[in-house]
Amino acid sequence: MIQDDTIKLLRECDAGVEMGVSAIDEVLDYVRSELLQRSLVDCKIKHEQLSNEINTLLCQYGDQGKEPCPVAKGMSWIKTNVCLVMKESDQTIAGLITDGCDMGIKSLSRYLNQYAAAEEKAKDMAKRLIAQEEELRLAVRPFL
């Protein structure tokens, strides 16, 4: 049970961090503010570092991780591009990023509860990812 919950939680973290990096990549070319761009790039770097740690742990368990749900990824792409076509601005980007952070925090918190028997190192990864999402959400708030 412990190993099963650990792997499942790490898979969800893997998918979540990939969604976060993908969302940041989708909006970076549209950002006008240097401060907003710096916040997004900093978060992307932290996400990529955490992703490497998550994948190292998954490899130790003989698992290859989990890709984000194709439907969720596709819907995110559509929403981002439609919103940016309608109003290309830092305010729009901040709103999209805030929504993504909120969804990530909510999902990861649910998975932490669902996979309560996971090892502490996996729970720590999820908590660190949640903290990164909360930090980014606060960083983009002035642009809303």
Could you describe the 3D structure shown?
The chain is mostly helical and 144 residues long. It is built from five helices and no strands. The termini are far apart. 35% of the residues are buried. The mean pLDDT is 90.
Describe the SSE topology.
Elements: H1 2-28, H2 34-60, H3 70-86, H4 90-114, H5 120-140
* Strand percent estimate: under 5%
Question: Measured on Cα atoms, how large is the radius of gyration?
Answer: 15 Å
Q: Kindly state the mean pLDDT as a whole number? A: 90
Order of helices and strands: HHHHH
Describe the sheet with the most strands.
none
Judged by helices, strands and strand pairing, the structural class is mainly alpha
Number of strands: 0
Low-confidence stretches: none
Helix percent reads over 70%
Number of helices: 5
Oligomeric form = single chain
The separation of the N and C termini measures 43 Å
The rough form would be described as: elongated
